[in-house]
Amino acid sequence: MRNDFRAWLEESRRWSESTIEKYVSALHGPLSDWATSHGISSQSLPLISNSEEFLGIASQLRKKPEFIERNKKGHGMYGAALERYHEFLLGQVSKHRQQALYPFARELMHLEVAEDAVPFNLKNLEDARNRVLREVVKRQGQPKFRKLLIQAYEGRCAITGCDFLGILEAAHLTLYLGPQTNLVCNGMLLRADLHTLWDLGLLAINPQSHKVWVSPTVVDPYYQSLNGKEPFQPKAPANQPSPAAIERQWSVANGASVA
């Protein structure tokens, strides 16, 4: 981890080589020694990869007399080394999330890069606004399909009960593969943010318990509070979610290969 930290400092281009060496040496040497001698950590600080664990250790370390004295003499260098390493760990979490926290992360990353390459042009603002509005309509779902879902779900999000139609979307339980998939039993009326989570494989319905499942990688307390909720079921059996479609989404969310 030490070499990774050094590489991260070098890539940031915000510090001189001498400053980088001071940060790395402080973390590997005195800071680690103080943490282990006081029983704050059982291992050298550069071996810690969890940002929250490191933050707790750093908070305790800052209260120790050795740290206070040396940090004062070093004009805050030891405190800065702790801050930089915590920043580094947070960056690693973000990097791993981009790569692995949901099934389609890599595809999204490629699309984001492509979008970033599009230059800003004032002449295209009107076209851009129309494109955005078309995207909203497209995202809400094919008009007929969405209307059917609004009727079946009584104008409410199947999971939250939100009844503001402007942000309710026609979500396909399985990928949209043409008009033949625009069946009410292959859809749910979902609030826009939940629709996104569904498409990313971060939200699903457990086919055994028939309750909402939210990926543990979605750490926001609000979304985690939806875990275990029973989604609304349309009254007409023909409009209720297809068990096969629910099973397929469950497989996607849990990383299984789906034909």
Q: Which regions are unreliable across 5 or more consecutive residues at pLDDT < 50?
A: 94-101
Structural class category: mainly alpha
What is the end-to-end distance? 39 Å
Chain oligomer state? single chain
Going across the biggest sheet, name each strand in turn: 1-2
Helix content: 40-55%
Radius of gyration: 25 Å
Task: Estimate nothing, just give the exact number of structural domains.
Answer: 2
Q: State the helix count.
A: 11
Mean pLDDT: 80
Strand content: 5-15%
- Global shape: elongated
Main sheet summary = 2 strands, antiparallel
How many beta-strand runs? 4
Please tag this protein with its features.
single chain; 259 residues; mainly alpha; 2 domains; two-stranded antiparallel sheet
Write the layout of secondary structure elements.
Blueprint: H1 2-12, H2 17-37, H3 51-61, H4 65-73, H5 77-100, H6 105-116, H7 125-140, H8 143-152, E1 168-172, E2 187-191, H9 192-199, E3 203-205, E4 212-214, H10 221-224, H11 243-253
Antiparallel strand pairs: 1-2, 3-4
Helix pairs in contact: 1-2, 2-5, 3-5
Concise description?
By secondary structure, this protein is mainly α. The protein has eleven helices and four strands; from the N terminus they run ααααααααββαββαα. Helix 2 (17-37) crosses helix 5.
Structure description:
The protein is mainly alpha-helical and 259 residues long. The protein has two domains: 2-100, no CATH class; 113-253, no CATH class. It is 53% helix and 6% strand. Strands 1-2 form a two-stranded antiparallel ribbon. Strands 3-4 form a two-stranded antiparallel sheet. Strand 3 (203-205) and strand 4 form a beta hairpin. The protein is elongated and about 75 Å long. The protein starts with a helix and ends in a 6-residue tail after the last helix. 27% of the residues are buried.
